[in-house]
Amino acid sequence: MGSEEKIKSTRRFDVCPVTETSAGIPLKDVYGPQDLEGIDYKDDVADPGEYPFTRGIWSNMYRGKLWTRRVFTGLGSTADTNERYKYLLGKGASGLYCFGDTITHQGIDPDHPLAEGYAGVSGVSIVCLQDMYHLFDGISLEDVSVSFNNPSMAATVVYAAFVAYAEEMGYDLSKISGSILNEPIHLVYSMFETNAKPLELAAKLATDVIEYSIKNTPRWHPIAPNAYDMHEKGANAIQEMAFTIAIMEEYIQRMIKRGYNIDAFAPRVSVFGCACDIDFFEEICKFRAARKVWAKLMKEKYGAKKAASCRLYLSVHTSGNSLTVQQPVNNVARVTLESLACVLGGLQSFDPAGYDEGYYILTEHSALTSLNIHNILAYESRVASVADPLAGSYFIESLTEKMEQEMFKIINKIDDMGGAIKATESGWIGSEMDHELIKEQKEIEEKKRIIVGMNEFTVSKEEEVPIEVGRDRPLEEQMATSKKREDEIRKLRETRDNKAVKNALEDLRGQAAKGEGHNLIPAMMESLRAKATLGEILGVIREANDTSYDPYEVIQYSL
Amino acid sequence: MYRGKLWTRRVFTGLGTGMDTNERYRRLIEHGETGLYWFGDVPSFHGIDPDHPMAAGNAGVSGVSYCCLKDMYALFDGISLEDVSVSNNCPSMAAAPTYAIFAAYAEEQGYDLKKISGSVLNEPIHGVSSLYPTNCEPLDLTVKVATDVIEHSIKTTPRFHPLAPNAYDLAEFGANPVQEMAMTIAITREYIDRMLARGYDIDEFVSRTNIFGCSTDIHLFEEVAKYRAARKVWSKLIRERYGAKKPGSYRLYLSSHTLGSSLTKEQPVNNIVRVAVETLGCVLGGLQSVDPSGYGEGYFVLTEEEGLTNLNLQNILAYETGVAATADPLAGSYYVESLTSRMEEEMWKIIDKIEEMGGAIKATESGWIRQELEKGIIKKQKDIEEKKRIMVGLNDFVIPPEQEVPIKVGRDRPVEEQVATSKKREEEIKVFKEKRNKSKAKNGLEDLWDDAKKGEVCCLIPSMINALRADATFGEILGVIRTANGYSYDPYKMIDYPF
Amino acid sequence: MENSSRKVKIVVAMPGLDCHDRGIIYLSHVLREAGMEVVYLGRFNTPENIVNTAIEEDADVIALSYLNDHLYMIFFPRVVELLKERGASDICVMAGGRIIEEDRPKLKELGITGFFGQSTPTPVMVDHIVKRVKRERWKVN
């Protein structure tokens, strides 16, 4: 009876092979009190709510206010997205997330030749003021914060449209809150570089949003640099934060040049959109270290006096790259752990990725699961009851300290290069990221880095735990969605008062020629009210700055 | 810690016949399982054979059916017991023949008994106050037989843990984390005292009776602190009160099944989230062995898919997150250290109180432990009802079933198939009993009867092993021991001794 | 006889507006390491400029990557069509990224091969490229 051949046991799985963090910081077997040497509680750690905010930006953290529980949203038409918003608000969401479609990111209109097939496909299409009416129908903007992710120059126009809408609806602008992930410098090496060029112009427009917002929408975060995209393109945890902070210095310096005191705007330019990957403790320490670095920089380098100027708000989308297409159920576990790291890292807001992120934009079911991750962590696990619960841990404090040092090294290096724009244009930041990306991929291929279900513990497709995942729309449907949107915009162009549009755009053009110091948001709002579109507004501004109307040089200004 | 050896990654397993379970074992080993979970069916818990009238329809249903030595051959076919540890959960007197059968099989297979490892969750005292009061009766005899397992094991299978008190069931039955550990420690002391009374030195055996099968709830930090505090209490107790000298004696091994009652039947996908947090709690708590609950635990025995998901969760923690790279990563944390100290203090209070009462058996027989647990159950239910304790999808954030994320949960197999499996087992055992060398079996059982008459001092494991080799079954073995001690042959008084 | 040290020349590009280029960054690195000459076009290309570049550079292979959505079913066939129009059908076209199973037969019919993804070992990709180029373009064994 029985086979002679005994199954070999899994002895090779007996040992934990991880001996360094994913950013390459060596990990000791065990940490002890000696690892806290040189760390001063008051200067380096301090109580939550106290400078340098290592332990979090509020004294009682989540007992005062839980993190904002967002879920990635943005699909199809504005009406589809609106429906999803209402569903999520009904299920306990406390903030909305708006992800633009590909062409909104690119700053081109749905009737642009290159836009064919893309409008409303993997995000929501925002082109004109009217779109805001559909997007937020029946939702009170004074009660819920909205986070826009439109990483390009287009973000400026989206912000202008949002404010114009809020104004027309009669909201108290001092009460609307949210943020916009609009920072363009990082785009050069991460997502949509085309619409971030010329970089000087893109940075100027982003600065306009800051300037306008601190005066008119004081609860709004007018610039949320997108650290996430840099991470997903290779930047390790240390680089992710250091690059982002270096980039933010560009805006700080611009605002100072425009004559503002650091304390007048710093509290509003201090929210980062980060990634949270699966390296649990490294991510927690990343957040703790970044808060500390930011606070020290604000106080020591820029002479900020207000505590608010030194507080860094952190928000996260958990890393899509850490997930696998194989065995989507495993992603529920991954996203849970990443979300927990966000909570233990003292974040203000995060949205857990959908378990089917590798497939398509979240389905209703994966969105619900993401929301439940929030709720289970917030209400069942009791991890939010104590501020910065890991503080004092030999390991955590020592890793935080180490990461802080490494971040400062990079920040200082970029400073020596003449700032983030220079370090971007010279290609240095990009090559650093490529280097990390290649290293990571190589480690995966050589199984030095194990990804369950991908390079180890693999199963065949048939053996996977069956769970519903987002399905690609069939090509025909994708084309039809896009076509419908294209037709809508064509119709808008036909029915609007083109003379009024032209007048507004020409006025914008005139103002856009006035250079760095002249804020274009009011003129953009004027153009939007006259029913000008995203592509037109950006085109005119580009032309006024000696750049082609169309970033792809395919179409011309036609009014 | 885990750089030397990761926690043993187990998955709750046990269904149908030995062959069915064996097939599942092989799949799980392929996917990184490093320790097998051997969960018996209800008849095996009760120590009755599949052909017992009370077993009808139950054999192989919510666990694997086994009752004779031959069953082991199917169950462990193709699996090297020197390479993988086996943990059995059997909260009754049947745990002793379970151990005996395992040892007998290993010996017949030619394994070096010094190399086989695993544990048996056999402790009966806790069962009286929690899930299995009837299984654990008569308590004095059950405790005696459990002590026999310890005595035999420390000499014969020195890497095996012959007593793994089941803290888990106490928690499921209302114990809070402090009570869970304190009561379990108090219970384990009963066995320590018995072994001392049998003339053994503390250092000879205590390093084998120091593994607890615990529960891990979703309250992350409380659970982590619980484990840290329990280790501390145990080592102080063993060193200071029992005068142990070997470091191995004051090391407490901890294993855990994540808490089933922390999960909801509603929206099973949410349970993956809960179990992920709980399993992380186990790792941060420095456990030696973990088996996470299946997301469909509220439904039935784990499906193969749930088993895989559990392994993957553990593999993600072990290989992707880096949380195992550093020993006790939360050490030094103001919160965790202070909570650990606080919980330690509270544990001592209970341990001392039970000592004052005359020990855990007395505290059980007086009903005190049960009362304490019941208070816990009532409080927890009340908190849930009043929404002081939120359970997502159960008492808040509720959605209608049709909106749930669809995911497959048990039933593993349709009812007709279960009945058929049970029937098949019943027939199999009937044929087995008919065909075996009856006089050999009878002799084996009668030798056991003689030994069982000798009382506390005579360890019954060797004669159990002999009876098993002579093809006696569990029901018969336990029946003979019962009659020798003045109890009925059959706990249900439905069948008689066949010889 | 072909010189065995002859280098494969490969254009690596993503058509359309998909921005997910982790894959081609790593792929290009791997191909260079394997001794190929990589003409890296990166993201945001039209089928026209991909084909133009391949012809101008006298490339052996066009490697196309796409992940975000379904539009590759428009871009990939268009690349093949343009090559045909330009009399350059001997340039091998390969694809990777996230090409779903149902679309593969149609692409195969057009002569597109590969369909590499996140978990394809890089030696498999390199081997596939080299073998196909030798067989179909260099006509050596």
Low-confidence stretches of chain A: none
CATH-wise, what's the superfamily of chain B? Methylmalonyl-CoA mutase
The pair of chains with the biggest contact is: A-B, 81 and 80 residues
Count of discrete alpha- or pi-helical segments spanning 4 or more residues of chain B: 19
Widest sheet: strand ordering of chain A:
1-8-7-6
Shape designation of chain B? globular
Total DSSP E strands of chain B: 8
> Care to count the β-strands of chain A?
8
CATH architecture of chain B: Alpha-Beta Barrel
Question: Which sequence of SSEs, written as H and E, runs from N to C of chain A?
Answer: HEHEHHEHEHEHHHEHEHEHHHHHHHH
Beta-strand residue percentage of chain B: 5-15%
Helix coverage percent of chain B = 40-55%
- Overall geometry of chain A: globular
How far apart are the first and last residues' alpha carbons of chain B, in Å? Answer: 53 Å
CATH class of the largest domain in chain A: Alpha Beta
**What oligomerization state is this entry in?**
heterotrimer
Pick out the low-confidence regions of chain B: none
Supply the helix-strand structural class of chain A: mainly alpha
Proportion in helices of chain A: 40-55%
User: In angstroms, what separates the terminal alpha carbons of chain A?
Assistant: 87 Å
The secondary-structure class of chain B comes to: alpha/beta
List the helices and strands and how they pair.
The complex is a heterotrimer of chains A (559), B (499) and C (141).
Chain A: H1 41-45, E1 68-69, H2 78-90, E2 95-99, H3 102-106, H4 129-135, E3 145-149, H5 154-168, E4 178-181, H6 199-216, E5 220-221, H7 227-232, H8 237-257, H9 262-265, E6 271-276, H10 280-301, E7 313-318, H11 328-344, E8 349-351, H12 364-380, H13 394-417, H14 420-425, H15 428-445, H16 475-495, H17 498-512, H18 521-529, H19 534-544
Helix pairs in contact in A: 2-4, 4-5, 5-6, 5-18, 6-8, 8-10, 8-13, 10-11, 10-13, 11-12, 17-18, 17-19
Chain B: E1 8-11, H1 18-30, E2 35-39, H2 42-46, H3 69-75, E3 85-89, H4 95-108, E4 118-121, H5 125-129, H6 139-156, E5 160-161, H7 167-172, H8 177-197, H9 202-205, E6 211-216, H10 220-241, E7 253-258, H11 268-284, E8 289-291, H12 304-320, H13 334-356, H14 360-365, H15 368-385, H16 415-435, H17 438-453, H18 461-469, H19 474-484
Parallel strand pairs in B: 1-2, 1-8, 2-3, 3-4, 4-5, 6-7, 7-8
Helix pairs in contact in B: 1-3, 3-4, 4-6, 4-18, 8-10, 8-13, 10-11, 10-13, 11-12, 17-18, 17-19
Chain C: E1 9-15, H1 22-33, E2 37-45, H2 47-56, E3 61-66, H3 72-85, E4 92-97, H4 104-109, E5 113-116, H5 122-137
Parallel strand pairs in C: 1-2, 1-3, 3-4, 4-5
